Amino acid sequence: MLFAEYDRCQYARSPLVEVICQLRFPTILNIGAKDPAEFQEAVRHDFPRYMARQEQLPPKVKPGPTPALEPQAPITNYNFVSADGKWKLNLTSSFIALSTLRYQRWEDFAARLDKPLAQFIQIYQPAFFERIGLRYVNAFSRRALGLEELLWDDLIREPYLGILGEPDVEETDVSKCAVDVESALAGGYRMKLHAGPGLLGGGKTDKEVKFILDEDLSANGSLSADSVPGKLEDLHRYAVRLFRGAITPELHNALGPTPPAE
User: Judging by beta carbons within 10 Å of its beta carbon (0-12, 13-18, 19+), is residue 18 exposed, middle or buried?
Assistant: First the structure.
């Protein structure tokens, strides 16, 4: 089963590359019209480094008898970064996001999100959230785990392998193979999944082919601020089930599972 229940654990050799939580809201023009000094002061202790950059949005389709592409104005993306550079808050006129390169367990991540999100809600008072997203990007390295003699179909379950799961397909003959899924989930949630061998960063610094498992889970609608904690807990549960359902017992054991810290 793809979403069976599993006991939670922590991995000594976690494959996580990045974890991102993004909350989208109806555009607030006040963000971008002036620097977010009040918000910075509220989060500056945990995120002392600040920078801002202009980002050009892709053109949108203008409806009509002859559809045309209409350019959009650039937006300002405000970045607030922790002293060690491993945690980052992003704030724009339409979303706030927390990302980390040092994820250890869900409770720590949720606690790190709690204060800046509460400050954002207090300062900017969004009418509601349109999308709450939680994304886990995993990259499994056979070299780092001492599993170089094994094939991906020894480590990853068949639904995530495409033709690499077929016994008459030689892994070395396949130059590209991926499984991409978009699906509704129970409870009104959605899943966008990418799974398959690939190179991190386009292989510019790391030439090892890893197996990428990219889980993007979301809740959509007119979501109140009070509903955010419960929605995130549900998304996290889906992420855990999806991850555990994608790996074989051999890979699970190679990752060094231990009971979660209290």
Answer: middle
Specify the residue for token string 């991906």.
152
Rounded CA separation 240/106 (Å): 10
> Do 13 and 255 touch, CB atoms closer than 8 A?
yes
Give 198-244 pLDDT, tens digit per residue.
998 877 788 899 999 999 999 999 999 999 999 999 999 999 999 99
Question: What is the three-class DSSP state of 240?
Answer: helix
Contact 135, 216 (CB under 8 A): yes
Locate the domains of the chain by residue range. Answer: 1-21+129-262, 27-125
Q: 84 is written with which tokens?
A: 């060690």
Around 138, how many Cα atoms within 13 Å sit in the side-chain half-sphere?
24
- Is 0.90 topped by the overall pTM? yes
